[in-house]
Amino acid sequence: ATNGMTNTKTDQLIGTTFVPPQWNNTDEWIENEDYCSWYGITCFLDVATDADRLIQINDQEIIEIQLSENILYGTWPNEVGLLGEKLVTIDLYDNFYHTAEDYGWLEDMKALKYFYFGSTSWDAEGIPSELNSLIALEQFDCSYTYWSEGPISKDSFSDLIFLEYVDMGDNIYHYDENRPNLEAFSSDWLPNLIRLYLDNVRFVEDGSREDVVFGMDFLSSMTNVIEAWFDFTKFSG
Fold first, then answer.
1. Cβ contacts of residue 235 below 8 Å, gap of 6+?
2. Residue 137 DSSP SS3
3. In 3-state terms, what secondary structure has residue 20?
4. Which residue from 15, 61, 144, 227 has the fewest beta carbons nearer than 10 Å?
């Protein structure tokens, strides 16, 4: 567990009045050998049949990690990749002092469908290429994080054919004048994408802090999207 552990974000606050808080809820963590009883850890799916649920409980495989709004800090452990064949959900939403910088573990997450870490301090230059390893991914939220100030690469979304929901709002991304912008979200590339949230996003040129404004021609390629939010994001035309 990362309870009580510092990271690069909390280290920046050394010398200030900031006191790292404890987790909101640590029920059963570490003190109980049955990790399936730990707060936020699930070893069975609610949607499973009784028979399937019994099998899951007997297997003691972690299927969901749901620790949103729990004041996590420290750094995300790469060892989570060991759960990759069974883990379906990672929900860390709104844990601002929690960070991650190495994403090699994503290459092992072949069962992950729901991946939420909006409003954390996870750090990357734009959207890292390892994201495309999540071949079962259906919902993704990296809004208001440090997955920012880098490109939205089309290749980062390759093979994510089941992806339905994307929230990348409140971030900054690099504009590339040599490639169609936001082509990663075309229905040809993401055939099941139906909800896209890019509200309050800034686009800048690499090495610049000045906003780049471009047209919304990209919308014509999103033929399957039924809801898209771009509130406070600047476009022309």
1. 213, 214, 215, 216
2. coil
3. coil
4. 15
**Predicted TM-score (pTM) of this structure:** 0.90
Evaluate whether 83 touches 15 at the Cβ level (below 8 Å). no
Nearest-angstrom CA–CA distance, 201 and 233? 5
* Pairing mode of beta strands 172-174, 146-148: unpaired
Alpha carbon distance 66, 93 (integer Å): 9
**Number of neighbours of residue 14 by Cβ within 10 angstroms:** 8
Query: How far is residue 117's CA from residue 68's CA, in Å, rounded to a whole number?
Result: 8
DSSP secondary structure, 178-231, as one string: TS-TTGGG-TTTSTT--EEE-TT-EEE-TT--SB--B--GGGGG-TT--EEE-T
**Can you read off the two tokens belonging to residue 104?**
């090699």
The answer to whether 215 and 237 have CB atoms below 8 angstroms apart is yes
Structure-block tokens of residue 54: 């019994």
Instruction: With beta carbons less than 8 A apart as the criterion, state whether 136 and 112 touch.
Output: yes
Residue pair 139/197 in contact (Cβ under 8 Å)? The answer is no
- Give the Cα separation of 228 and 33 in Å (integer): 45
Provide the pLDDT confidence category of residue 180 given band limits of 50, 70 and 90: low
177: which DSSP letter? Answer: T
pLDDT in tens, 42-87: 988 766 677 877 777 778 889 999 999 999 988 899 999 999 999 9
Residue indicated by tokens 């299927």 = 63
Bridge partners (DSSP) of residue 173 are 150, 203
